[in-house]
Structure formats: C-alpha cells, structure tokens
Amino acid sequence: MAPLSALRPAADLYGDVVTAYVDVSRTNENAAQEIELRADNLRRELLDAGADEATVEAVAARIVEPTGHGGETSRVVVARGAELVTDMLLASVVAARQHQGPIANLLELARAKADDVRYALVRVDRSGADITVAGTVSPAQREMTSEGDHDELTKVKVGGWSQRRYQMRVEDSIERNAETVAKDLDRLAGNERIDLVLLTGDPTSVASVRDQVGTRVADRLEVLEHGSRAEGASDDLLDDEVAAAVQRCRSGRIDSVLDRLGGGASVAGVAETVEALRRGEVETLVLLQGVLDDREAYVGPEPLLLGHTADELKAFGVDEPAPAPLAEALVRAAIGQDADLLPLYAPVGLLPDGVGAVLRFDTRPDQSA
User: Fold this and answer.
1) CA-to-CA distance for 351 and 85, rounded, in angstroms?
2) Which of 18, 30, 141, 202 could be bridged to 134 by S-S, CB 3.0 to 4.6 A?
3) Separation of alpha carbons 107 and 308, rounded Å
4) What confidence category does residue 352 fall into, taking pLDDT thresholds of 50, 70 and 90?
C-alpha cells in the first residue's frame, strides 16, 4: 500500500481548515473556463460557510493553475490561514466537494492513495527495453530506456565454421543486453516503491530478463502476453492485461491484511478501533466504504485525540472538542500514527460493522488470563 505520510501535514491541522476536491480535467477546448467557473462556485460556497477569506482565495487560485497533465484529473487542496498545506493531483475525476471545519477531510484522498499501485511496464526486445513507471493515482509517469551494446543482434545464415561463432555472438549479445535491463530494474526497484514489474515483448529476451533480475524484482514480476517495443504496436490488449494485474495486486493486499485481521493482534468494531487508534497501536486501519457516513465523533488538536462524545475528550484535557465525521476522525488518527489504510468496497465477515484494524502491538490486558 502507498504510505500516507504525505498527508501528515494536513492531518495535523486543527481549526479553520479548508478542503477542496475539484475536477480540473482538460479534455475539451472549454476546459479552462469550466475550471474557472468551478473555482468561482467553490469560492462562493466556502465563504457562505464562514471560511476565512484569505484561505479561500489561496485555494481558488491554486485550483485554476494548469496541472501540466491532460485527460481526467482532480485536484485536492487543503489549506489553513491562507497557507496551502496539501496540493495533490489524482488521475481520475472524484466527486466534487469542499469543506470548512476543524480538521481536513482526507478520507477520499487517503483511500485513493491506499489503492495506488505503482508499476514498471517493461517492453523488452533483444537490444534492451523501454520502461514506463506509472501509478494508478497520480497522472504523472516517467519513461526511460535501458539499452545494451546492440552488437550482433540478428541471426543470419553465413555458412561454414563462422556461422556457429556468429550465432554464439548473437546469443551472447542478447544475454548481455538482458543483463543490462535486469540490473536497471533492480536499481529502479531499490530506489523507489514499485509494486509490480510487468514484463512483455520478445519471448527470448523476456525469459532472459526474468532469469537475471534480483529477488526484489522477481517477487513483483509478472510476464504479460501482449505488448511490443515496436513502433506503432497496438496497446489495447496490453492495457487490459495491465488493468488485470493491478487488480490482482489490490486483491492480494486485501487478502494479506484480512489474514492478519483474523489471526493476529487486531481489533474489530468502532469502539475497539477508536481505542486502539488513541493508544497509537494501529498498523493498518480497515474501513468499509460508506459504513460510517452518518456517524459523528469529536476531535482535538492532535490526530490521536478522538472520541465518541465531547465529555470523553474533555476528560483527556481537550478544552473545546470539535465535532467531525467519524470516518474522517479515524483516518486522521491513522495518518497521525503512520498507519496504513485498507479500503474495503464489499462487506467481510470478520468485520460485522465494517471497521477494524491490524495492530503493530497490543497493550490491552491479556483477555485469556
């Protein structure tokens, strides 16, 4: 799962906080004007809700700035006191919303980041590979090339004793080029988070690269049937394969966390999850989409200060607890202790009310004693 640490500055905010989710897609010739109109609507609604004017203007100004990306894109901005604390782009259109309140509304952004799968798509041939590094959340992607020495890459019939020597040189060159690609992939996976390495192209080169990569890449590697490095090759079937691989990766994450939820240190239910979050014990918060939409909590200045009632927080020394959506309070507390989030989109039997957590440690008294 993608770490949520980038959201920590926004989670630490308390007071007059503005959060905006806005469609900033540039998919037609009128896109700039449409974004300006959305920014004007956002400005009016936030001011009507009592948000600080300088903060609202800072958010609206950022919304209309070009993103540098075409296609469907959403922008998520969090600000307080005219200071922009978070500005992130999502490679999809999320439901537009703006909010002014005591804490940032980070649930949708955290869910998107938790669902993110970063992959390296490697199109290999006998001379090297084209590598695309992308994710399913950010619209940004990176293209790179891994090339060998291009020496003697085509097998031809030359006759006599020279033929065998020539063929051996071809095979050796292909092997060396595959070794270069494998080393580049190992280096890439060592330098940044890569959840999947998707390998496709010339079968001989694919097999050679697969055999030479290190453990870190091998554990994440899948060989795809479609896709070519050749210019003009169709990507339709390849796109479907990439999407299926991404979904398998997400399903694997869910299975892994649910296995731990059922067999290790864990809690289930809202009450126990709130207690574990307050104690700073949560490694992964598990939350079913929509299950807490109508429920409220109370929060304090620090992310781990949350409770079911205002009096509960006053007992912890919070002078003026503020009401907030329960799901937002849980996610804020999870981010505040560097926990992961596992979003669920369908009920599971282990969590009757759709809320639970895997714990990194458990300080509760031994219930079996």
Assistant:
1) 34
2) 141
3) 18
4) confident
- Give yes or no for residue 131 having a pLDDT over 80: yes
Three-state DSSP class for residue 10: helix
Q: What DSSP designation does 104 have?
A: -
Q: Taking the CA of residue 264 as centre, how many other CA atoms within 13 Å lie in the half-sphere pointing to its CB?
A: 14
Average pLDDT over residues 172-190: 90
Domains annotated for the chain, with CATH where assigned, are 1-115 (3.30.960), 117-250 (3.30.420.60), 264-369 (3.30.1330.30)
231 or 275, higher pLDDT: 275
Instruction: Using DSSP, state whether 225 is helix, strand or coil.
Output: coil
- Is the pLDDT confidence value at 176 over 70? yes
Alpha helices in 31-85 (DSSP H): 31-48, 53-63
Under 8 Å between Cβ of 294 and 315: no
Angle subtended at Cα 303 by Cα 297 and Cα 307, rounded to the nearest 5 degrees: 30
b/e sequence 294-303, b meaning 16+ C-beta within 10 Å: eeebbbbbeb
Contact between 313 and 303 under an 8 Å Cβ cutoff? The reply is no
Whether the pTM exceeds 0.70: the reply is yes
Quick one: pLDDT band at residue 156, thresholds 50, 70, 90?
very low
